[in-house]
Amino acid sequence: MTVFNKEIRQLYKGILGITLLLSLFILTIVLIYPQFAQESAGLIDLFRNVSFFTDVLNIDLSLITSLAGYYGMEFEVLVGLLGSIFLAFIAGNLIVKEEKDHTAEFLYTLPHNRLSILVQKLLAFISLSLMMHLIILAVAYLTIKLSSQEMSGSDLINLQLATFLCHLVVGFLSLGMTELIPGLISNLGPMVVIFLYLMNILDNMVQNVPLIRWLTPFSFTSSADIIQNHTIDWSLVLSNFSLALVFLLLAAWRFNRRDIQT
Fold it and tell me: How far apart are CA 247 and CA 131, in angstroms?
């Protein structure tokens, strides 16, 4: 697992840094909720006047008067979207960075075939992503308990799990597309995330085109849907993972056959 250990050493500081930053955000939004709750009536009236905004972001005003609804709304943007952008950049550069830094010549001479190298890099990415989510979940749970507030443990876990799965999907898509598109495009991952998020906004605006939600992982991270249904829409998870795996398999096929790019 030489490549796996190398990736862990290279990536853990960056991912730990964003994890601590997101954890601080989560801690803050939980601690300020009591004050938010006192002013929620005025804020709800304000949101009702901009119903287009709430429709686009799929915000259920009836939920934000509870900690779960408020937490989910903030979590969806802070951890869901910002975390996706960061992790997509990391995943999209798993192969590109080796060729940009001219370390691929050495890496490909190690006693590992290219498929093994790709799998080890993906395992390192998945492991560090899981670490990030476990830390954020622990911070959220402890902050809620220590501040004597209440939120369903299943809702807390479902929100975190859905976002973790979303991050894996955007990571796989970013790696796959970066490998399939000619050239060393290091910032393709964040662009993939922005495109997928815009697709989710389009889905919220155009309710009569259900196909869209099957093609963007942000469809199954909707905090309003998760909290209302107390579960994740696993059919959407399956469809998005299937699409991501297609791109990943095509990328593995190309990576195993092409020459080093410079």
Answer: 25
pLDDT band at 29 (very low <50, low <70, confident <90, very high): very high
Residue with more model confidence, 146 or 204: 146
DSSP character string of 19-44? HHHHHHHHHHHHHTHHHHHHTHHHHH
Q: Scanning the structure block, which residue is given the tokens 């909720």?
A: 33
Among residues 76, 79, 73, the alpha carbon closest in space to that of 43 is found at 73
Alpha-carbon distances of 105 from 94, 95, 109, 221, 234, rounded to whole Å: 15, 12, 7, 40, 41
Q: What is the CA radius of gyration of the chain?
A: 20
Q: Taking residues 194-219, report their average pLDDT.
A: 86
* Per-position b or e across 91-121, b if 16+ CB within 10 A of its CB: bbbbbbebbeeeebeebeeeebeeeebbebb
pTM above 0.70, yes or no: yes
Phi-psi region of 258 (alpha: psi -120 to 50; beta: other; left: phi over 0): beta
Among positive and negative, which fits the CA dihedral 119, 125, 128, 133? negative
C-alpha dihedral, 147 to 220 to 19 to 156, nearest 10°:
20
Spatial separation of the C-alpha atoms in residues 226 and 206, rounded to whole Å: 20
Q: How far apart are CA 73 and CA 58, in angstroms?
A: 9
